[in-house]
Amino acid sequence: MESQIIGILAALLTTFGFVPQIIKMIRTKSVKDVSIITFIQIGLGTFLWAIYGIYLRDLIIIIANSIAFMTLVLAIVFYFHYN
Q1: pLDDT tens across 16-48, in order?
Q2: What pLDDT is recorded for position 8?
Q3: What is the DSSP string of the chain?
Q4: What's the domain count of the chain?
Q5: pTM for the full model?
Q6: Whole-angstrom distance, CA of residue 48 vs CA of residue 6
Q7: Is the pLDDT of residue 50 over 90?
């Protein structure tokens, strides 16, 4: 049970880790100091983690990384919108 709680907390922190950056991009309408390579790299990583979660049938991994991937796709959309 303890390991599952740690996993859920880690998933929450990772899943919503880029939300502050997205909010900043929207507020400032600027991506001056944002690295698109970082977004793409982490986006691909979360996508692969979600696939791995599917193989393991681990809902925490699947849900957390699917949401993180969608968040990063949103960040990439805003990056190109404001660039």
Answers
A1: 888 999 999 999 999 988 899 999 999 999 999
A2: 84
A3: -HHHHHHHHHHHHHHTTTHHHHHHHHHHT--TT--HHHHHHHHHHHHHHHHHHHHHT-HHHHHHHHHHHHHHHHHHHHHHHH-
A4: 1
A5: 0.84
A6: 21
A7: yes
CATH of the domain at 43: 1.20.1280.290
**Amino acid letter, residue 63:** I
pLDDT beyond 90 at 12: no
- Please, are residues 77 and 61 in contact by the beta-carbon 8 Å criterion? no
Instruction: Give the angle subtended at the CA of 26 by the CAs of 21 and 31, to the nearest 5°.
Output: 65
Give the count of beta carbons closer than 10 Å to the beta carbon of residue 80. 9
Quick one: pLDDT band at residue 75, thresholds 50, 70, 90? very high
Cα-Cα-Cα-Cα dihedral of 42, 45, 51, 52, to 10°?
A: -130
pLDDT beyond 90 at 1? no
